[in-house]
DNA sequence: CCAACTGTACCAATCCGCTTAGTACAGTTT
DNA sequence: AAACTGTACTAAGCGGATTGGTACAGTTGG
């Protein structure tokens, strides 16, 4: 599925959240697919179930995941992703672009990079 | 200069570091310019000098700042910015682009956004 | 109907990073 | 000499992250 990096300063639950989101963005998990259960994923990663739950709560706030009582957690539709998440991404994109341009990269180089990112996701 | 957001979950020293870096990227602070002294900036932001020093240490590791014993801290040349920092930025850029494309934005829209970021920096 | 699964909600305990406060020292400037 | 610069310690407190354990309500399959 994905792995944890204990050298990383980021909290484990953030690594889990980002790892799961990445699976959705890359198409490995598609709309309606069921996420692994809290306990199963915790056992798989050798961490506490509470930490997994925390990651799921965060993903649900972002709109990438919804839960059905007693059944499990499932991947939501793209349209359900929160506007707050989209704004955060745009800020991240703009800030990275501005600093890369300052450091000497060109608009063309970054444009090619965006096109390449689209290919990678297919 | 810039301000702190105590509602933000990010540590103060990171907010200071990012705020100072932003001043460099936008051209408010240029190569060779002196940064405010540790104590002066601490007083200005009403926080502990140790916290400012920590931000300066981080900026120095990134290559945006260098210090001269007894004189102060100064803005470095673009060429001195660490490769590690550049790689981190590229990863941030690529990840944001991939997720925005997944959410329905087009390559053209993001391309225009990059061009706009270049204008904003002038 | 029951056993096994699902998410969810607590609590207590521990660990670690962030921040503050204070003191101190070496180098530079005026 | 006085006033500034960055830097280096130590001690203390606070709060978030993580673990471990228990518990409950809803769903599913035998």
Report what the structure shows.
- 2 copies of one chain form a homodimer.
- Chain A is globular.
- Chain A has 5 helices and 2 strands; from the N terminus they run αααββαα.
- The longest helix of chain A is centred in the C-terminal third of the chain and has 20 residues, at 83-102.
- The mean pLDDT of chain A is 94.
- In chain A, helix 1 (12-25) packs across helix 3 and helix 2 (38-45) packs across helix 3.
- Chain A is mainly alpha-helical.
- Chain A has a two-stranded antiparallel sheet.
- The A-B interface holds A 21, 24-26, 78, 81, 86, 89-90, 92-94, 96-104, 107, 110-111, 113-115, 117-118, 120-121 and B 21, 24-26, 78, 81, 86, 89-90, 92-94, 96-104, 107, 110-111, 113-115, 117-118, 120-121.
- Chain A binds a DNA duplex (30 and 30 nucleotides) through helix 3.
Beta-strand portion of chain A reads 5-15%
3D shape of chain A: globular
Give the N-terminus to C-terminus distance of chain A in angstroms: 19 Å
Helix content range of the residues of chain A, please?
Answer: 55-70%
Largest interface: A-B, 31 and 31 residues
Key descriptive features of the protein:
homodimer, 122 residues, mainly alpha, two-stranded antiparallel sheet, DNA-binding
Outline of the structure:
Chain A is mainly alpha-helical. Chain A has 5 helices and 2 strands, in the order H-H-H-E-E-H-H.
How are the elements arranged and paired?
The structure is a homodimer of 122-residue chains.
Chain A (H helix, E strand, L loop, with lengths): L11 H14 L12 H8 L3 H14 L2 E4 L3 E4 L7 H20 L4 H15 L1
Antiparallel strand pairs in A: 1-2
Helix pairs in contact in A: 1-3, 2-3
The structure holds a DNA duplex (30 and 30 nucleotides).
